[in-house]
């Protein structure tokens, strides 16, 4: 794969991991790092996504693909990619930002590049596990998150900024307004985790699966590895304590200082042919899984022939193809069975 690929945010946790995996699998590709931070990287471009003028560096290097790993609130990189006919993959957007970016790209009468939104759970892996989207009527995602795992700064910032804001899930195509960490229920996780209290949680797949894939009922709930942390977050939300904390303190609260741990999630799908459950565990944690999945999307986009237009990452694959690609990594386990 002889391409010029720019990873904006390439000095961060996810970006640097994408760089390492991509380079090891594709030594012929020419990788650039875009960052505000100083570094000794030979192909480093000084780029600040908040300053559109700095993006002119991209065209000077004949970049074929931009991989965005930082929160681009103004969508400057998206506008630049569209205007300059450069392929684009974004793995960073929370649901409100994703809906805005999708609206921007959709208004373009004729796109001359591939625009890939890969901001679903773990770079769109969750949606990629569904094997029969056309006949799916309901999807439930259950997430187990270890407080020992590594997480990028953007994850903490998202939760800090949005923990008190309502979000939507969908039931028979009707939006249901929710808050994080409320409406708990018991769920029995695989991989010897066992029964845990799970709470409301917002991920972009709620929007993607309902609005884009037209699945009538979509919900997401999560739990932390620490039962105490899970319980306390539910209490904090129920008494509206998050509203009293400053943004800085909320960021500290959600910061993950772990050195890495397993990440697990499970997808329950109801189709016209019955119900199934797909369970996934990544031994190296969520950052490694997100980065590896992003590399698979890059390889898929660059090695296959796609028409110019808008894609969500799971749409780059045929049914079961993402599962097959993910399990080439021996640290990722995926099991699917009928219920």
Automatic annotation (TrEMBL):
Q: Name one Pfam family in it.
A: Epimerase
Q: What InterPro entries does the record tag this protein with?
A: Epimerase_deHydtase, NAD(P)-bd_dom_sf
UniProt cross-references to Gene3D superfamilies, sorted A to Z:
NAD(P)-binding Rossmann-like Domain
Domain NAD-dependent epimerase/dehydratase: from-to ranges: 5-70
Protein name (database record)? NAD-dependent epimerase/dehydratase family protein
Q: Which organism is it from?
A: Flavobacterium supellecticarium
Q: What is the lineage of its organism?
A: Bacteria, Pseudomonadati, Bacteroidota, Flavobacteriia, Flavobacteriales
